[in-house]
Amino acid sequence: AMEKSYVSMFLLLVAISCALAKDMGKKETKETTAKPKLPQTLSRGWGDQLIWTQTYEEALFRAKHSQKPLMIIHHLDDCPHSQALKKVFAEHKDIQKLAEKFILLNLVYETTDKNLSPDGQYVPRILFIDPSLTVRADITGRYSNRLYAYEPSDISLLYSNMQKALKLLKTEL
Protein backbone atom coordinates (compact mmCIF):
# COMPACT_ATOMS: atom_id res chain seq x y z
CA ALA A 1 0.00 0.00 0.00
CA MET A 2 2.89 2.31 0.88
CA GLU A 3 4.54 1.64 -2.50
CA LYS A 4 1.29 2.37 -4.37
CA SER A 5 0.92 5.76 -2.71
CA TYR A 6 4.58 6.56 -3.56
CA VAL A 7 3.96 5.64 -7.18
CA SER A 8 0.77 7.66 -7.39
CA MET A 9 2.49 10.56 -5.59
CA PHE A 10 5.38 10.32 -8.08
CA LEU A 11 3.00 10.25 -11.04
CA LEU A 12 1.12 13.22 -9.64
CA LEU A 13 4.39 15.17 -9.33
CA VAL A 14 5.32 14.24 -12.91
CA ALA A 15 1.88 15.34 -14.12
CA ILE A 16 2.13 18.66 -12.22
CA SER A 17 5.63 19.39 -13.45
CA CYS A 18 4.57 18.59 -17.03
CA ALA A 19 1.60 20.93 -16.72
CA LEU A 20 3.81 23.65 -15.24
CA ALA A 21 6.39 23.19 -17.99
CA LYS A 22 3.64 23.56 -20.59
CA ASP A 23 2.38 26.70 -18.87
CA MET A 24 5.88 28.14 -18.82
CA GLY A 25 6.15 27.43 -22.52
CA LYS A 26 2.83 29.17 -23.06
CA LYS A 27 3.90 32.20 -21.05
CA GLU A 28 7.01 32.63 -23.14
CA THR A 29 5.08 32.42 -26.39
CA LYS A 30 2.46 34.82 -25.02
CA GLU A 31 5.12 37.41 -24.34
CA THR A 32 6.74 36.94 -27.73
CA THR A 33 3.44 37.02 -29.61
CA ALA A 34 2.31 40.11 -27.70
CA LYS A 35 4.68 42.15 -29.86
CA PRO A 36 4.35 40.61 -33.31
CA LYS A 37 7.49 41.04 -35.35
CA LEU A 38 6.09 42.50 -38.51
CA PRO A 39 7.46 41.07 -41.71
CA GLN A 40 10.31 43.21 -42.94
CA THR A 41 8.71 45.17 -45.76
CA LEU A 42 10.83 46.88 -48.36
CA SER A 43 10.07 50.21 -46.69
CA ARG A 44 12.01 49.14 -43.58
CA GLY A 45 9.97 51.78 -41.74
CA TRP A 46 10.68 54.72 -44.08
CA GLY A 47 7.06 54.83 -45.27
CA ASP A 48 5.02 51.64 -45.27
CA GLN A 49 2.38 52.95 -47.65
CA LEU A 50 4.98 53.95 -50.26
CA ILE A 51 6.10 51.65 -53.05
CA TRP A 52 9.73 50.65 -52.59
CA THR A 53 11.93 48.81 -55.03
CA GLN A 54 13.85 45.75 -53.96
CA THR A 55 17.19 46.21 -55.73
CA TYR A 56 19.30 48.98 -57.18
CA GLU A 57 18.98 47.40 -60.63
CA GLU A 58 15.18 47.30 -60.39
CA ALA A 59 15.17 50.93 -59.20
CA LEU A 60 17.29 52.10 -62.14
CA PHE A 61 15.07 50.20 -64.58
CA ARG A 62 11.94 51.71 -63.08
CA ALA A 63 13.37 55.25 -63.02
CA LYS A 64 14.33 55.01 -66.68
CA HIS A 65 11.01 53.57 -67.82
CA SER A 66 8.69 55.66 -65.66
CA GLN A 67 10.66 58.89 -66.21
CA LYS A 68 10.59 59.47 -62.45
CA PRO A 69 13.65 60.39 -60.41
CA LEU A 70 15.09 57.76 -58.09
CA MET A 71 15.71 58.52 -54.44
CA ILE A 72 18.17 56.20 -52.69
CA ILE A 73 18.45 56.19 -48.92
CA HIS A 74 21.53 54.46 -47.52
CA HIS A 75 21.03 53.59 -43.86
CA LEU A 76 21.75 50.97 -41.21
CA ASP A 77 19.33 49.42 -38.73
CA ASP A 78 21.73 49.82 -35.82
CA CYS A 79 22.78 53.41 -36.64
CA PRO A 80 21.12 55.94 -34.30
CA HIS A 81 21.43 58.71 -36.95
CA SER A 82 19.68 56.52 -39.54
CA GLN A 83 16.96 55.62 -37.03
CA ALA A 84 16.38 59.26 -36.09
CA LEU A 85 16.16 60.36 -39.73
CA LYS A 86 13.87 57.45 -40.59
CA LYS A 87 11.43 58.41 -37.82
CA VAL A 88 11.22 62.04 -38.97
CA PHE A 89 11.01 61.01 -42.65
CA ALA A 90 8.22 58.48 -42.01
CA GLU A 91 6.20 60.92 -39.88
CA HIS A 92 6.57 63.90 -42.25
CA LYS A 93 3.30 63.98 -44.20
CA ASP A 94 4.54 66.28 -46.97
CA ILE A 95 7.65 64.19 -47.56
CA GLN A 96 5.59 61.00 -47.65
CA LYS A 97 3.26 62.61 -50.19
CA LEU A 98 6.12 63.94 -52.33
CA ALA A 99 7.92 60.58 -52.14
CA GLU A 100 5.08 59.05 -54.17
CA LYS A 101 6.49 60.90 -57.20
CA PHE A 102 9.80 59.05 -56.89
CA ILE A 103 11.09 55.58 -57.50
CA LEU A 104 12.22 54.70 -53.98
CA LEU A 105 14.98 52.47 -52.69
CA ASN A 106 16.44 52.18 -49.22
CA LEU A 107 19.61 50.19 -48.82
CA VAL A 108 21.20 48.68 -45.74
CA TYR A 109 24.20 47.59 -47.80
CA GLU A 110 26.51 49.31 -50.27
CA THR A 111 26.19 48.68 -53.99
CA THR A 112 29.14 48.12 -56.27
CA ASP A 113 28.24 51.37 -58.06
CA LYS A 114 30.89 53.89 -57.03
CA ASN A 115 28.61 56.73 -58.22
CA LEU A 116 26.46 56.11 -55.15
CA SER A 117 29.31 57.03 -52.82
CA PRO A 118 30.74 60.16 -54.48
CA ASP A 119 32.21 61.36 -51.18
CA GLY A 120 32.46 58.11 -49.23
CA GLN A 121 30.32 55.41 -47.69
CA TYR A 122 28.48 56.76 -44.67
CA VAL A 123 24.92 56.59 -43.37
CA PRO A 124 22.42 58.02 -43.53
CA ARG A 125 23.08 59.25 -47.07
CA ILE A 126 20.43 60.21 -49.61
CA LEU A 127 21.12 60.52 -53.32
CA PHE A 128 18.92 61.37 -56.26
CA ILE A 129 19.28 59.82 -59.71
CA ASP A 130 17.43 61.23 -62.68
CA PRO A 131 15.72 59.07 -65.33
CA SER A 132 18.74 59.41 -67.63
CA LEU A 133 20.40 57.42 -64.78
CA THR A 134 22.69 60.28 -63.79
CA VAL A 135 23.51 60.57 -60.09
CA ARG A 136 22.60 64.14 -59.17
CA ALA A 137 25.74 65.02 -57.23
CA ASP A 138 24.48 68.62 -57.31
CA ILE A 139 21.61 67.90 -54.88
CA THR A 140 23.33 67.96 -51.53
CA GLY A 141 22.60 68.39 -47.85
CA ARG A 142 24.29 71.04 -45.75
CA TYR A 143 27.42 69.28 -44.52
CA SER A 144 30.60 69.85 -46.50
CA ASN A 145 32.24 66.73 -45.07
CA ARG A 146 29.24 64.48 -45.85
CA LEU A 147 27.49 66.04 -48.81
CA TYR A 148 24.52 63.65 -48.89
CA ALA A 149 23.93 63.30 -45.16
CA TYR A 150 20.78 64.60 -43.51
CA GLU A 151 20.04 64.97 -39.83
CA PRO A 152 16.45 64.96 -38.49
CA SER A 153 16.71 68.77 -38.20
CA ASP A 154 17.43 68.95 -41.98
CA ILE A 155 14.07 67.45 -42.93
CA SER A 156 12.87 70.66 -44.61
CA LEU A 157 16.09 70.81 -46.64
CA LEU A 158 15.51 67.20 -47.68
CA TYR A 159 11.97 68.16 -48.68
CA SER A 160 13.20 71.05 -50.83
CA ASN A 161 15.88 68.79 -52.35
CA MET A 162 13.14 66.32 -53.30
CA GLN A 163 11.25 69.21 -54.94
CA LYS A 164 14.46 70.24 -56.69
CA ALA A 165 14.98 66.71 -58.02
CA LEU A 166 11.45 66.79 -59.47
CA LYS A 167 11.90 70.31 -60.94
CA LEU A 168 15.15 69.31 -62.65
CA LEU A 169 13.17 66.67 -64.48
CA LYS A 170 10.79 69.16 -65.98
CA THR A 171 13.49 71.58 -67.06
CA GLU A 172 16.12 69.13 -68.29
CA LEU A 173 14.31 66.21 -69.85
From TrEMBL:
Domain of life: Eukaryota
SUPFAM superfamilies: Thioredoxin-like
Alphabetical list of Gene3D superfamilies matching this protein: Glutaredoxin
Subcellular location, record wording: Endoplasmic reticulum; Secreted
Leader peptide range in chain numbering: 1-21
Keyword Secreted part of the UniProt annotation: yes
Similarity section: Belongs to the AGR family.
Protein name: AGR2 protein
Originating gene: Agr2
